[in-house]
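Title: Prediction job returns without error message
Component: structure pipeline
Severity: low
Priority: P3
Assignee: unassigned

Description:
Job completed but the reporter wants confirmation the result is attached to the right record. Sequence as submitted:
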Amino acid sequence: MPTATMTSKGQITIPKEVRDELGLLPGTKVTFTIDEHRRCVLSPVRISARSVRGILKREGRPAVTLEEMDEALREIPIR
């Protein structure tokens, strides 16, 4: 079981094994939930596509087609 030590500033480095299992990358936001047994559950924050709708829209630029989106997604390495 991976362990970590908290610094005097309250910082903890998440062990690589845990980061890899959860797909945590630099800049990933996480939530901490305390359950009824006072256990802490760390979870990556997942955003919905609906929440980012339109943030990249620029006036005068054509919309991207679904085929172009699919092609871009195929280029993203899968772990």
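Comment from assignee: result matches the submitted record. The chain has a mean pLDDT of 86.
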